[in-house]
## 1
Amino acid sequence: MSLQIKSFEEYQDAYKKSVEQPEEFWAGIAENFFWKRKWHTVLNWNFKEPNIKWFEGAKLNITENCLDRHIYQNGDKPAIIWEPNDPSEAHRVLSYKQLLHKVEQFANVLKNNNVKKGDRICIYLPMVPELVIATLACARIGAIHSVIFGGFSAQSIADRINDAKCKLVITSDGSFRGSKTIELKSIVDDALMQCQSVDRVIVLTRTRTAISMLKGRDVWWEDEIKKVETQGNPACPAEEMDAEDTLFILYTSGSTGKPKGVVHTTAGYMVYAGYTFSNVFQYQPDEVYFCTADIGWITGHSYIVYGPLSQGATSLMFEGVPTYPDAGRMWDIVAKHKVNILYTAPTAIRSLMAFGDEYVDNKDLSSIRKLGSVGEPINEEAWHWFNDKIGKGKAPIADTWWQTENGGILIAPMAGISPTIPGYAMSPLPGVQPALMDENGKEIEGNDVSGNLCIKFPWPGMLRTTYGDHERCRQTYFATYEDMYFTGDGCYRSPEGYYRITGRVDDVLNVSGHRIGTAEVENAINMHSDVVESAIVGYPHPVKGQGIYAYVIANHHHDDINQTRQDILQTVTRLIGAIAKPDIIQFVTDLPKTRSGKIMRRILRKIAEGETSSLGDTSTLLDPTVVEAIIEGSKEFK
Ligand code: WTA
C-alpha cells in the first residue's frame, strides 16, 4: 500500500480501512519504511493501564529511515537548509549524504564520551543544524534525547535533567535571537549546580560569548569532532532498536504540578510522523518545506526532523525570529529559498499582520503552494490574511490539530485534497477515531454538537507513558473517560461532521502557541517572598491568542507596587522562563473561594475577559463581596 493518499476518494477508502481493519491498514503503511526485522504483532493495547505497543518484534533504527535509505538515490538532495538569524551570514545546506556523515561523526563523539543505549541526553541548543545532528546522533546509538526549548530557565532545565537523570548535556556558548544574544552555556552552568547525574557537557561554538569551561566536565564540540576524525573510521553503524524502545522524552505542561516527560517510542512514532507529514502536506519530491517551529517543541521534532527526513524531504530550519531584522523576514526566506510549503502558527501570523501589509506586499511569494497552521485555534481574520496575502488564494491551508502526546497530526485537511473552512481542523486522518464526550462520560453522537474531545482507538504515534510516572499518564489521559484517550480540548462537530477545536477545557493555557500550566505559573509566583497567594487565568490576547492574567495577594515591601510587580515577573522568569511571564498582574486582597476553599476560576476568568455582567452563580462563594473588589481593581487594566 502506498503511503501517500492522492485524492479525496482515496482518503475515504483509507479512513474506512483504518477503522475496520486497523492492523492491516498500519501494517500496509509500515511496509513503506526500512526494517532490520519485521514485526510479529501490529498492535497490542488497552487504555486501562494503559499499555500500548505497536509493531512488536520489529527491529529498526529511525536514522536509517531518515538518512541511510535516501543516500542511494538522493544522496545529494538537500536534507536541511539552514537560514541564520542574521541575513548577512551565509545560509547552510546539508545534503542527505553530508547530514548522515555528520550524524555518524557526532554519534561517535557521544560514544567517546561514554554514552550508551538507553542513556538520557539533554539537548539545549539554538536552532542550528547541529541541533538536528545531535538529535539524530542520539537516535543513531539508541540514546534517548530530551530536547529543551532555548527559552526555558536554568531551574526548568534542572528539573527536566533531574527527572530523566540525564548524564550528558549538549549546548552552545550562546544563541542569537533577533538582536539579542542569549547565554545558553551560562544558563546550563546554573542548572547543573542542582544536577548530580550530569558528568559531561559538550559545547558547540556559535556566538563566541565568553563562557566558563570546567575541566573534566566541559568539552568543545569541535575538539571532540577532531578526535573522531583522527580515530580514522568515521562510520557509526545504527544501533538495532526494538519497536517499543524509547526514542525521546519531551516535557510538556499539564494542569497540575511540574511538566511531565512525554515518552515516544521508535517504530510507531516514526511511521506516524512520516505518514502524516507526507499526507497532510502532500509533499512532492522537489519541494522545499519550511516549518517555523522550534525543535524544542513537538512540532519541530515531528515536522522539522523526523517526519520530513523520513520522507526524504528538504526541510528548512530558521535560527531567528520572524521580526528580525524586520517583519518581512519570513517572506524574504520564502523568496530566497523558493519555499513551497510553509507550516507556521497563528500567533506568528497575527503578529506579522499587525506590522502591516507593506512588509509582505512587495515580496515574491510565487513559490508557495501549500500552507499549514498549528498550535492553537486560528481566528478567521488571521486565516483570511494567511490565505489572501501569503497563499494568494491559491494555496490550501491545513489547520492541523494535535498535541505533544500525539506524536503527529490527528485532525487536519490534506492540502489540496480535502475541503477547508476557516477555523476548522476538518476531519480526522486515517487511523484517528475521535469522540465527543459529555460531562457524564457519555459519547455525544450525531452532528452539530459540542463536547470534550477524546480518541477511542490507539494510533501509532501516541505517547506510551510519562517518564518515571506511569500512573500520572493514566490519571491525566486515560482516567477521565473509560477506554478513551482524553485530549483536554473542547470541540464542536458541525452539521457536515467537520471538527472545530474550541480550546482547552482544563487549566492549561496556550500563550503564543506555547502550552503553559496555570498551576506551574502560580507555584512560581508563590515562590516570591512577598506573595501570599495567587491565581492565574487566561484571557483573549490579540497577538498571543491567550494572555496570562495573574491575581496576586502580596505584602508589599516597596511603596511602589510596580517594583513588586517587576520582582514577581523576574521570579517567574527565573523559575520557568520569560514565556511564562504574566501579561497582567492585578494585586487583590482576597480571592473568590468556595466554602471548601477552592478558588472559583470561572469568575476570575470572566473578570479577566471583561465579562463582569455575566458572572453566573456566585452564591456558593464564602464571601461574595470579594468579587466586587476584584472587578473594581480590574478596571485599571481595561
Ligand atoms: C492546541 C502542539 C486548535 C490544543 C502541536 C492542544 C490547537 C494544544 C491546534 C497542544 C489547532 C494545537 N487548533 N488548537 N490546529 N493545534 N492546538 O502539546 O489546545 O504544544 O491541546 O502541541 O495546542 O499543544 P502542544
## 2
Amino acid sequence: MYKITSSDRCHDSSYYWINGNLRNMSHTIAIDGYSACGKSTLAKALAKRLGYRFIDTGAMYRMITLYFLRENVDIKNMGAVGGALEGLTVDFVPGNNDALLNGENVETEIRGGAVSGMVSPVATISAVRRWIVPQQREMGKAGGIVMDGRDIGTVVFPDADLKLFVTASMDIRTNRRLAELEAKGITTTREEVATNLATRDHIDSSREDSPLRQAEDAIVVDNSALSLEAFIEAGMDEVKKIR
Ligand code: DC
C-alpha cells in the first residue's frame, strides 16, 4: 500500500513522491462493461490501491430511478421527467461511497428489484443523461478518479488516461449475480437472473443516446477465467503502464 504524507507532495499538486518515485496522482480511469461483469469490483479495488476517488455511475442512474418511482413520475412524459430532475440531488457518502439521494442514504434500496427492473429504461432518457453527465465530469475534473459505468470511456471522459472494458461470460455473470442476490436473501431462479441480464444488456447497448460500447482505445479485461486477485492484478498491470 502506498503511503503519502503532505511533505511528499510536490509544488505541482498532481505529483507525489511515493516509495521513492515521483508519481502523477491525477489520472482519470474509465471502466465500462455489461451488468454484473465485475467492473465496480475492479473500479473499487483500483481506487483503493491508488488512493483515488471511486464513482459508481450506475448508482446515480439507480438513485434517479428510485426518485422517479417514489414520485410516480411518468417516464414517457418529458415535462414530468424534467420537473422531477429539478427536485433531486445525487451524491455519495464520503468514505464508504453509499448512495445519497437528497441527503438520504438509499444504498440498500437502489439495489432492490423495483429499481433494478426500471433503471435501464430510465437510463435511455436523454434528458436524464444530459442532467447527470455534467455532474460526473465535475466529479472527475481534478483527476485522481476511477469511474465505472457504460459510457465513461466513450462519452463522459473520452480523454481518460486509461480505459478498461471489462467482460465475462454470460454463465459467469449469471452465477455471480445469483450468488449476490442469494447472499442478500432475495429468492430468484437462475433463469430469471439470466433473462434480466440479457434484457439489460440489450437495452443498454441498443439505446440511441450513449449506448454501451467498447471505446476504440479501451483495453479489454476478460475475467471469466480469473480469480479476484488475478483480475485486480490485470487491472493494476494496465495502470502501471500509464503511471
Ligand atoms: O451498473 P448498474 O447495473 O448499477 O447500472 C444500472 C443501469 O444504469 C444500467 O441499466 C445501465 C445504466 N447506466 C448507464 O446507462 N450509464 C452509466 N454510465 C452507468 C449505468
